[in-house]
Amino acid sequence: MKSFPTFDIENEIIDNFYLSPLVTHDRELIIAGVDEAGRGPLCGPVVAAAVIFKSDAQYPQINDSKQMTHAQRSLAYDWIMENCLVGIGQCSPVEIDELNILHASMLAMKRAIADLSKKPDFCLVDGNRMPDNLISAPLRKGNISSLAQFDYISQMSGNTIIGRAVVKGDSKSLSIAAASIIAKETRDKIMHELAAQFPQYGWDKNAGYPTAAHLQAIKEFGINQHYRKSYKPVKDLL
Predict the structure, then answer these.
(1) Each residue's pLDDT tens digit, 80-92
(2) In whole angstroms, what is the distance from residue 232 CA to residue 202 CA?
(3) CB under 8 Å to 196, separation ≥6 — which residues?
């Protein structure tokens, strides 16, 4: 039977997070899911999204964006934008070339979190890495010492937020899955807009990924400012 992401991880944090009384000051813990889209394409930005569910309102079927059709993602995108708090960040091809795609993805996530209208107490991030504005902290069941608790509290000044990286999080956490949908749909919209300016590359169909038709178009028409010049085969054309 096919499983879908749930709020189980979010609920575990709410139930067991040992810093919650100190962090939240007797209010509900604010948890954001964070994900990115566009690491693999040869062109266009890498886009990240952060999503906070505002209530337990009925939501459409939300899944890892890669497992959804465009029609399903579009429906979910509209619902999330209307019913959740959403932050979006991106890094340009120039930044990707300067930083490398891993660090650019982390920076896009950091920008997405900063773009939220409310600062989250805790971020769940898809993958095995977190942006540098997040610090890792165990749950209460980790039997953390009181000294370590105060060490974490001292690190929470400024823009630092506590977080957890979740491998394949978009298939486990509903918050991360929602972020994956926003990131994917936002990036696709950007590539459709760019395709109107440069129709010869078919970006509205390939989203910048190295399909056979896209590679042929690059050979025929060359590259422009939207390409990632550190990526092969683009780099080979310079």
Answers:
(1) 999 999 999 999 9
(2) 19
(3) 204
| Per-residue confidence band for 59, with pLDDT thresholds at 50, 70 and 90 | confident
DSSP string of 185-200, one letter each residue: HHHHHHHHHHHHH-GG
Token reading at 19: 């810093």
CA 135 to chain centre: 17
Reference 190, options 47, 54, 81, 30; nearest CA is 47
pTM score over 0.70: yes
> How far is the C-alpha of 233 from the C-alpha of 231, rounded, in Å?
6
Convert the pLDDT of each residue in 148-201 to its tens digit. 555 555 555 556 788 999 999 999 999 999 999 999 999 999 999 999 999 999
The total number of residues written for the chain in this structure: 238
Measuring CA to CA, how many Å separate 214 from each of 52, 111, 198, 234? 36, 30, 12, 12
Report whether 49 contacts 179 (CB < 8 A).
Answer: yes
pLDDT for the residue numbered 138:
62
The two structure tokens encoding residue 59:
């939501």
Task: Report which of 94, 90, 106 is spatially closest to residue 228, judged by C-alpha positions.
Answer: 94
Dihedral pair phi/psi, residue 167, rounded to 5°: -65, 130
Helix axes 174-197, 70-83, angle to 10 degrees: 110
Task: Give the C-alpha distances (Å, rounded to integers) separating 166 from 93, 128, 215.
Answer: 26, 6, 34
